[in-house]
Amino acid sequence: VRQGWKDIVLGGESRGATLAMQAARIWQLENPGGKALKGMLFYHPYLIDGSTPIGQTARFLPIARSTNLPIYIFQPQLNTKFLHSQALMDQLQSGGAAVYFHFLDGVRGGFHLRDADSLTARESIERDLVGERVRKAFGLLSRLPTPPTAAMEPGMPIAEHTGQVSDDNTLVPIGRGPTPPLSLRDDQGRRIDLGDLDGQVVLVNFWASWCGPCVREIASLTRLNERYRDKPFRILAVNIGESAEHVAAFFDDRGITPSFDLLFDRDSEAAKAWRVYAVPSTYLLDKEHRIRYGYRGALKWDKTSVVEIIDDLLSRPRDAARAHTARRQPGERAAE
User: Fold this and answer.
1) Which of 31, 168, 227, 329 is the most exposed place for a label (fewest CB within 10 A)?
2) Domains, the chain, ordered by start
């Protein structure tokens, strides 16, 4: 600004959006009435406060509610931030910001920074359009009125999370409310409803083919499923946002034949209901289908500590399971 620049738009990606928004607010507070800063442009901004314990609702950073500059967001579809676009928009608009979402179908987060030989055909097309799209977004932001003052400070702070976050590759005990419904089509077009699996211990795994950690744990999920082939145990692998045809080709290319159930959450509504903020996210349900444990990230699912937990849930009669309170298994330490 001191060098005479006008119509400035701050930009950022993912967690970098937080720094840009904080810098913009400081400038507004120090320069009331200033018109040089026109707005902000972000690629899949990440404005969640800290690490959300699995199964809980995320908190957004205070800056998300204390910004009134116009914001233009490019949001790739194949990214877990896409699932919570509406929640992010609500936060930004609560501070008075005009928010424009530009959804990019069929591309992964960070596609514009990847090597050309790692891009899909759709991502290559989108990357060629980055310059044009950014220029149009800049033009829109530069034409909008500039707020004369910074937004008011956000209201009362949101309560702290009380759940646990695992940092030691162990399942996290979860004590939460009613289990969300789950009723989706499988890879054969058949509807599978969680409510129809009464009396079975169920592992619900949310995943996507574009997620590296998801792919790495497929082998151990397969081994786990084989281990409990003759037990009342079921794995429901819920794919987020991809077609059955795409996923079939994904497995064919890798010579993998999944032995567990593949379900398809095409509109991502199930992932939202189950509070999925990152993939893979996995929940372990008892015979009454109450969520007892969870884990965010890739895990070796046939490791001893996991098998012991599943064996314990399987050994409990249904009536006993009703009174069971999730507890940590012997030898496991609490996540710090």
Assistant:
1) 168
2) 8-143 (3.40.50.1820), 172-323 (3.40.30.10)
